[in-house]
Amino acid sequence: MVNFQDKSRLVVGLQPVREVIRVHRERVFEVLIENGSSPRLEAVQRFASDQGAPSIRRVQRAELDRLSQGAVHQGVAAWAPLLAFTELLDLIVGCDLMLALDSIQDPQNFGAAIRSAVGVAAAAVLWAEHDSAPLSLATFRASAGAIEHARLCRVRSLRSALSEAAAAGISVVGLDSNGTKSIRECDLRGPTILVLGSEHEGLSRGVRKECTSLAKLPMAQGVASLNASVAAAIALYEAASQRVISSA
To answer: Is the dihedral of CA 14, 46, 34, 136 positive or negative?
Structure first.
């Protein structure tokens, strides 16, 4: 059996694997499908074959269990090309809308935030490499395949990256329950970075200082905060809505 681990990443789950196949086609190293008769698994095999995947292998469930290490694989896995990353300068020069993740530690939130960035607003995603959840099986699965379509930028220091963006004239809007105005009152039509704080602490002190404004989300009385990825989706939707209205 060929070892792909040094030059690829493992993705598991029906939707993530389908998106890997859809995006990378013949560049997918191998698709693994559980033995047995199942319409869903047969459909994945046909799709992989139609898209030109070079290697499709039926395997025992035990092999998928071993590879996935506890992640829910739904009977399918794929060895996919490594993710591509965009340089910060390239994002700043062509900035439209970005989502910056400040110390998001939960891979479920990390992946769901990427899914919202791609699906709601076609926004790039920016984060610091040492202060965030790893790009893991759980992250890929939580993104439901959206990460295959994302513009990703991983930096050493999020604070420095935001400072550089602000100096280039980009509006850096931190999501903060103590913000001075609602996200609806912010002008999000120009080049903008929305900054999402961590699940428990919110925006870190250094990152907060680099924000050009702080905005709170509209909340019902008695609710103090929202799940991090839900908050990201709401802010991204507001930005996308403003842009649609302004272009009408």
So the answer is: negative
pLDDT band at 222 (very low <50, low <70, confident <90, very high): low
Smallest CA-to-CA distance from 4 within 20, 23, 15 is with 20
Alpha-carbon distance of 206 to 172, in angstroms, equals 13
Q: Confirm if 164 and 88 have CB atoms less than 8 A apart.
A: yes
β-sheet bridge partners, residue 9? 80
Burial 178-208 (b: 16+ CB within 10 A, else e): ebeeebeebebeebbbbbbbbeeebbbeebb
Cα angle at 111 between 203 and 243, to 5 degrees?
70
Task: Provide the H-helix boundaries in 87-227.
Answer: 88-93, 107-121, 137-142, 158-167, 205-210
Rounded distance between C-alpha atoms, residue 50 and residue 43, angstroms: 10
**8 A C-beta contact, residue 73 and residue 13:** yes
The helix (H) or strand (E) run that includes residue 12 is strand 8-12
| Domains in the chain: ranges and CATH | 8-81 (3.30.1330.30), 88-247 (3.40.1280.10)
What Rg do the C-alpha atoms of the chain give, in angstroms?
20
Angle at 75 between CA 69 and CA 79, to 5 degrees: 65
Tell me the CA end-to-end span of the chain in Å, nearest whole number. 56
3-state secondary structure of 225: coil
Structure tokens at 34: 């559980």
pTM, full prediction = 0.91
Work out the angle at residue 118's Cα, subtended by the Cα atoms of residues 116 and 119, and round it to the nearest 5 degrees: 65
For the segment 127-139, what is each residue's pLDDT rounded down to a tens digit? 998 888 888 999 9
